[in-house]
Amino acid sequence: MASPLEQAICAIISTFQKYAHHSGDKHKLCQAELKELLQKELPTWTPTELRECDYNKFMGMLDTNKDCAVDFVEYVRSLACLCVYCHEYFKDCPREPPCSQ
């Protein structure tokens, strides 16, 4: 049986692949794919009141090479930043997991 960290790595990869193939390029997320991924995979962390211009700004931040798409490296960097943010936020909390299992 895979360890929780191994499962997490598999989930990160398979989630990217699940959404990246919609527009034809299985190696990049276009803005619509990124928006769908955020809404479906991070629903409690994605405000429902985000407007299209908010997604444009978010896409602009993640798209570091400015090719109008988020590749796997950009996607993983964003998840790493999110993990660092959560770690900092929860570091003084009790040792219980910050997320429900």
TrEMBL record:
Gene3D superfamilies found in the cross-reference section: EF-hand
GO molecular function, one term: calcium-dependent protein binding
Entry keywords, A to Z: Calcium, Metal-binding, Repeat
InterPro entries per UniProt: EF-hand-dom_pair, S-100_dom, S100/CaBP7/8-like_CS, S100_Ca-bd_sub
Keyword Metal-binding: yes
Pfam family, one: S_100
S100/CaBP-9k-type calcium binding subdomain domain sequence ranges: 5-47
Keyword Electron transport: no
Domain of life: Eukaryota
Family in the record: Belongs to the S-100 family.
Protein name: Protein S100-A3
